[in-house]
TrEMBL record:
GO BP annotations listed: lipid metabolic process
Sample GO molecular function, one term: phosphoric diester hydrolase activity
Protein name: GP-PDE domain-containing protein
Highest rank taxon of the organism: Bacteria
Species, as recorded: Streptomonospora mangrovi
Residues in GP-PDE domain copies: 58-329
InterPro entries named among the record's database cross-references: GP_PDE_dom, PLC-like_Pdiesterase_TIM-brl
Coiled-coil segments on the chain, per record: none
């Protein structure tokens, strides 16, 4: 049966639709594949979780678990969240050090991980029950044990080692710091913003704050020029980016923040890893790759774990063992895995 204009038209429409779909797929691939991305200027950087401190088995850890009571056998003499531990982390090669802060009874900030002091010290109560000077008199090495309480290798050695936020800022005036607000109190975000607002603009550029949605939102309102992140800001960014990132566009919600990306989710991000980190850097956002599903304190803590980091990843990797990992990164001996499936191409 000979073709007629009425039969040719649907065929032309189908060909045009098919051609458009092919161009869309090819264009999306070209826009997000690492094959055409510029070579990163450097490899990954290292984020030292709580500086250099004692490690523990994270399996089964809950929010109220006393991790000092399940310490691994000590390999060094540093305790987490101390000036000495942070200095050791930077000396080992850390690019950024994370530490925890709590508001004290006299409206200052103590650098300490736990909400309560019972686990690590000889005292009892919450950090807010004590003034800063009272907290500094406690022995933060009191509760550490690797053998079920038979021995306590740091007991008596941690008195006076709990620093204030002011001490940390003064000790590391030109270093990249990640401040973790441990509460959900928006007033704590306001108080922290007031403290940080006294710093020079160039110093603020090297500080990032993360924590609960409410204190981070309050801090962002008072001090928007400080890079900050919460679960809400992370979710807002990633949802918007998954919807629009295939075009290369970076949503406003992804600008001027820090993104902690679990390695299991990362390969599904458009342009992962090279294009993604390049796009985020263009809007003043840091990318941090965390191990596994991003669960409690998971980090790239062994050479084998570091092998899972893609070759062309140029963000930060989260580690609890900066003494092991930073030298490997500096030598270029760690990253080696492929980018994986998904959006990264």
């Amino acid at each position: 049966m000979p073709e007629t204009p009425s039969t040719r038209r649907p065929r032309r429409v189908r060909r045009l639709v098919l051609s458009a779909l092919v161009l869309l797929v090819v264009g999306t691939w070209l826009n997000n594949t690492a094959l055409l991305a510029p070579e990163p200027g450097t490899g990954p950087g290292v984020l030292a979780h709580r500086g250099l401190g004692q490690t523990f088995d994270p399996r089964g850890v809950a929010a109220d678990t006393c991790t000092a009571e399940r310490m691994d056998p000590p390999e060094h003499g540093y305790l987490e969240n101390t000036v000495a531990g942070m200095r050791a982390a930077f000396d080992a090669g850390a690019d950024q050090v994370e530490f925890d802060v709590h508001r004290t009874a006299d409206d200052r900030f103590a650098v300490f991980h736990d909400w309560e002091v019972d686990c690590r010290t000889e005292a009892s109560g919450t950090t807010r029950d004590f003034t800063l000077e009272e907290l500094r008199r406690l022995d933060i090495g009191h509760g550490y044990t690797a053998d079920g309480g038979r021995t306590h290798p740091f007991r008596g050695e941690g008195r006076g080692l709990m620093p204030s936020l002011d001490e940390v800022l003064a000790e590391f005036p030109d270093r990249e710091l990640l401040i973790h607000v441990k509460s959900e109190d928006p007033e704590e975000g306001v108080l922290l913003a007031e403290r940080l607002a006294r710093l020079p603009r160039e110093r603020l550029a090297r500080i990032t704050v993360y924590g609960g949605d409410r204190p981070v939102a309050a801090l962002r309102e008072e001090l928007p020029r400080v890079r900050s992140m919460s679960r809400q800001t992370l979710t807002d960014c990633l949802i918007a980016y998954e919807a629009l990132g295939w075009t290369g566009h970076v949503p406003d919600s992804c600008a001027h923040t820090q993104l902690h990306i679990p390695e299991g989710y990362a390969p599904w991000l458009w342009g992962w890893p090279a294009r993604f980190t390049e796009r985020m850097a263009s809007v003043d956002t840091r990318v941090v790759l965390v191990a596994g599903s991003g669960g409690f304190s998971e980090g790239f803590d062994t050479p084998a774990a570091l092998e899972r980091v893609p070759d062309d990843y140029a963000g930060l990797v989260w580690t609890n063992r900066v003494d092991r990992i930073a030298p490997l990164v500096a030598e270029g001996a760690g990253p080696g895995a492929a980018g994986g499936p998904g959006h990264g191409g």
